[in-house]
Specification:
Elements: H1 2-26, E1 37-43, H2 46-53, H3 55-62, E2 65-71, H4 73-85, E3 93-96, H5 98-107, H6 114-117, H7 134-137, E4 141-142, E5 154-155, E6 158-163, E7 165-170, H8 171-176, H9 185-194, E8 204-207, H10 214-227, E9 233-236, E10 239-242, H11 247-263, H12 273-281, E11 285-291, H13 292-299, E12 310-313, E13 326-327, E14 329-335, H14 342-352, H15 355-364, H16 373-376, H17 379-385, H18 391-398, E15 402-403, H19 412-427, H20 434-449
Parallel strand pairs: 1-2, 1-3, 8-11, 13-15
Antiparallel strand pairs: 3-14, 4-5, 6-14, 7-11, 7-12, 9-10
Helix pairs in contact: 9-11, 10-19, 12-13, 19-20
């Protein structure tokens, strides 16, 4: 009898739990904001193009009307900052990266998303936040204190797509020259040197970004910087201080500039990510050290003359290193702190960061890489990348170490531009050596960081 009673009690508990789960899921209604209108601001990007293709479906499902503007990247962030600083509530939703959060959160321009995520009336039960790769979604978690790393604290945006940084090699060029993909910076320098003018004037070994701008640093350079044990800054005695002149930072910067001098194009100072991708796709560059998706899209059949000949490989690391790090760039959707339609804005963010949409966007659109593990592991996506040599293996090798390698601070963009210009100055002989250039950069950074609160 006791056994029967126990079984009966367990059955009642199971049925009660099931009824509770159904009741909780029934609290959510896609049409809870029917009739409201949102304004969304997009950076001009394939991720945005995929969202725009499904806006009509979102409107049909929710009854929410959506107006949007698409702005080219060179004007996007200044226009966005001006709009949210006005505190007029527009746009309601916008695309952002994690570096912008370090300015927007302290300024009160962006709304915390955790309260929406935790509310069963606002978030459907199968949204499954835990499905996001921890390092990718964690890039948008921050406690708002300069010097404290991302990954903890409030959630300020949700990811729609991201880029890890790795090598993309022209396999045919390497085979013709009896070379293998490099695994260390010294190997990369040597291969770059050997492939200088590998098929005549105008061809070169290695393509990387070189503009004196913030986004030059965050791709290949910062990935190498982190893998070789360097740090940008640390909290010391209650202050945020620069570490860019440490032995590790100077050594990897010296290797980076040597790589450019011996294996890069003569006009490397003018290369952005478009220039890197084009050089690789046109067989002017043998290797690219940049975002994995740049190589991916050059390798799609018909996308470039070298499509089908390109292969991914992990970024170079010190000899014997077990862990591989990649600096991360991730685009996310965020909510204006002053939006007059926060619940409708959350529906928009929820819909376009859902598993269903993101699976569609990587197959039918160009939203590579998917931030959700279930999407990356899906048979449909694995089939899509099956012809991309080394892509899945490289992704698996670097994903656990793909994260923001910078230290959050409110002067990120100004510091990054100064840092990139310092690389130019060292290469141009303004300083007698790399140590002197990085010493000068540290002094400038410390002055800029002097009054930044860290607690």
């Amino acid at each position: 009898m006791r056994r029967r009673f126990a079984v009966f009690a367990l059955l009642l508990l199971f049925l009660s739990a099931a009824r509770f789960a159904r009741a909780a899921s029934d609290l959510f209604d896609w049409r809870q904001c029917e009739g409201q209108t949102l304004l969304v601001l997009f950076n001009q990007h394939p991720y945005a193009e995929a969202i725009i293709r499904r806006i009509a479906d979102f409107e049909d499902q929710t009854g929410v009307n959506v107006a949007y503007r698409m702005v080219p990247e060179e004007r996007y962030f200044p226009q966005l900052a001006e709009s949210v600083d006005a505190k007029a509530g527009k746009p309601d939703v916008f695309m952002t990266g994690p570096y912008q959060v370090w300015e927007y959160a302290p300024a009160g321009w962006i709304r915390e998303l955790d309260p929406f995520l935790a509310n069963p009336r606002k978030t459907r039960s199968n949204y499954t936040y835990r499905d996001f790769f921890p390092g990718i979604a964690g890039a948008f978690r921050w406690n708002g204190i300069a010097g404290h790393p991302t990954g903890d604290g409030s959630l300020w945006a949700l990811p729609i797509g991201f880029e890890a940084n790795c090598l993309t090699c022209n396999s045919e060029v390497l085979v013709n020259n009896r070379l293998r993909p490099p695994t260390t910076m010294m190997e990369l320098i040597e291969i770059g040197r050997r492939l200088r003018e590998f098929e005549g004037e105008g061809t070169f070994g290695i393509a990387v970004r070189g503009l004196a701008d913030w986004n030059t640093l965050h791709s290949g350079y910062m990935t190498a910087f982190a893998n070789y044990g360097a740090k940008d800054m640390e909290i010391e005695n209650g202050r945020l201080v620069s570490r860019v002149n440490s032995p590790e930072a100077v050594a990897i910067t010296d290797l980076w500039l040597r790589m450019l001098a011996e294996g890069g194009p003569r006009d490397w100072r003018y290369y952005d990510w478009y220039g890197c991708g084009t050089a690789l796709g046109e067989r002017r560059a043998a290797i690219m050290f940049d975002a994995d998706i740049v190589g991916f899209f050059q390798n799609v059949p018909g996308a470039s003359p070298q499509a089908g000949k390109l292969a991914s490989a992990p970024p170079p690391t010190p000899l014997g290193a077990e862990d591989v790090k990649s600096n991360l760039w991730v685009w996310g959707l965020a909510m204006n702190a002053n939006s007059n339609h926060p619940d409708a804005a959350w529906l928009f963010i929820q819909y376009f960061t859902s598993r269903e949409f993101q699976l569609w966007s990587v197959i039918e659109g160009k939203s590579i890489n998917p931030p959700r593990r279930s999407v990356f592991e899906s048979l449909a996506f694995q089939n899509r990348i099956s012809g991309m040599t080394g892509f899945a293996d490289t992704f698996s090798r670097v994903i656990d170490g793909t994260a923001i390698q910078y230290t959050p601070n409110p002067h990120f963009f100004e510091i990054s531009r100064k840092w990139a210009q310092t690389l130019h100055d060292i290469a141009d002989g303004v300083y007698p050596n790399t140590q002197a250039g990085m010493d000068a950069l540290k002094h400038w950074m410390d002055e800029r960081l002097r009054d930044v609160p860290v607690e």
